[in-house]
Amino acid sequence: MTTNESSYRDKKVMSIGIVKELTGLSERQIRYYEKRQLLFPDRTDTGIRKYSFSDVERLMDIADQIEEGVQTHEIRSELAKRDELQKTKDIRNKMLKGQLNAHFQKKY
């Protein structure tokens, strides 16, 4: 995944109404998942929630797991593990890119 794709997916630009339409979830369900700390929308100065495409994907995953009977605390724990793993991968990728850039700048 390139940096542009990542920033595009993670940019918080959608209102709860759009997210509701995309996911099929009610506003109440979306707010409940936020309250249970399963997702973290940004807030505008006026308090309006803003979501990203990554948030929409996460909500779809949460809804599927809830439907399968998984408890919210179990989902939160699993999401935290996934987020930490992704952070580790991102750091590793940045380090590798830096090493490659340094290597090729020295030679050429």
Automatic annotation (TrEMBL):
Record-linked Pfam families: MerR_1
Limits of the HTH merR-type domain: 13-81
Superkingdom in the source lineage: Bacteria
Entry-linked InterPro entries: DNA-bd_dom_put_sf (IPR009061), MerR-type_HTH_dom (IPR000551), MerR_fam (IPR047057)
Alphabetic keyword roster: DNA-binding, Repressor, Transcription, Transcription regulation
GO terms, molecular function: DNA binding
Protein name (Swiss-Prot/TrEMBL): DNA-binding transcriptional MerR regulator
Organism lineage: Bacteria, Bacillati, Bacillota, Bacilli, Bacillales
